[in-house]
C-alpha cells in the first residue's frame, strides 16, 4: 500500500502528465493550422503564377507586360506578408496559452510540491525550518523569473508583429 507521501507525489506526477498532454495537443493543433495556412498560400501563389504566365504570354505591349509583372509581384508580396502575419498571430496566441498553462503549473504544482516537502520535513525527527524557507524562496524566484521572461518575450513579439504589419 502506498504511503501518503507516495500518493501525493503520484498526484503531482499525474497533474504534470496531464499538463504535458495538453501542451502537446496545443502544439499539434497549432502546427496543423500553420501548415494548412502555408499550403493554402502556396496553392494560391501557384495558381496566381500560372494565371500570370498565361496573361503574359498573350501580351504584345512591353508596358502592359511590365504592369502585369508589377501587379503580380505586389500581389505575391501581400499574400506572403498576410501569411506571415497570420502565422505570427497563431504563434502569439499559442505563446499566451502556453504561458498561462506553465504559470498555472508553476503556481499549482509549486504549491503542491511545497506542501509535500513541508509534510515530509514535519515527519522527520529533525525538522529544518530554514531549509523549508529556502525551498519556498527558490520556487518563488523561479516563478518570478519565468513571469519576467514571459513578459519580455511577449513584448518583443508584439514589437516584431507591429513592425511586420507596417507597409
Q: Keyphrases for this structure?
A:
single chain, 167 residues, mainly alpha, elongated, Phasin, Phasin domain-containing protein
**Runs with pLDDT <50, length 5+?**
none
- Briefly note the structural class of the backbone: mainly alpha
In total, the number of strands is 0
Helix content: over 70%
Q: Count helical runs.
A: 3
Shape: elongated
Proportion of β residues? Answer: under 5%
Radius of gyration over all CA atoms, rounded = 27 Å
Order of helices and strands: HHH
How would a textbook summarize the main sheet?
Answer: none
Average of pLDDT: 77
The total number of structural domains is 1
Distance between the termini: 67 Å
Protein name: Phasin domain-containing protein
Domain Phasin: 7-105
Organism: Zoogloea ramigera
Overview of this structure, please?
By secondary structure, the chain is mainly α. Helices cover 92% and strands 0% of the residues. It has one domain (2-129). The longest helix has 62 residues, at 62-123.
Amino acid at each position: 500500500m502506498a504511503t501518503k507521501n507516495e500518493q501525493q507525489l503520484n498526484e503531482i506526477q499525474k497533474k504534470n502528465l496531464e499538463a504535458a498532454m495538453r501542451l502537446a495537443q496545443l502544439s499539434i493543433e497549432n502546427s496543423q493550422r500553420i501548415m494548412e495556412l502555408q499550403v493554402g498560400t502556396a496553392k494560391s501563389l501557384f495558381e496566381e503564377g500560372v494565371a500570370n504566365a498565361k496573361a503574359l504570354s498573350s501580351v504584345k505591349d512591353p508596358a502592359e507586360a511590365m504592369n502585369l509583372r508589377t501587379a503580380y509581384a505586389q500581389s505575391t508580396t501581400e499574400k506572403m506578408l498576410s501569411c506571415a502575419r497570420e502565422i505570427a498571430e497563431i504563434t502569439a496566441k499559442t505563446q499566451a496559452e502556453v504561458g498561462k498553462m506553465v504559470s498555472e503549473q508553476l503556481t499549482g504544482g509549486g504549491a503542491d510540491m511545497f506542501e509535500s516537502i513541508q509534510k515530509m520535513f514535519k515527519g522527520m525527527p529533525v525538522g529544518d525550518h530554514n531549509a523549508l524557507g529556502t525551498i519556498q524562496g527558490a520556487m518563488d524566484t523561479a516563478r518570478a523569473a519565468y513571469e519576467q521572461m514571459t513578459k519580455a518575450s511577449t513584448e518583443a513579439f508584439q514589437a516584431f508583429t507591429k513592425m511586420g504589419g507596417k507597409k
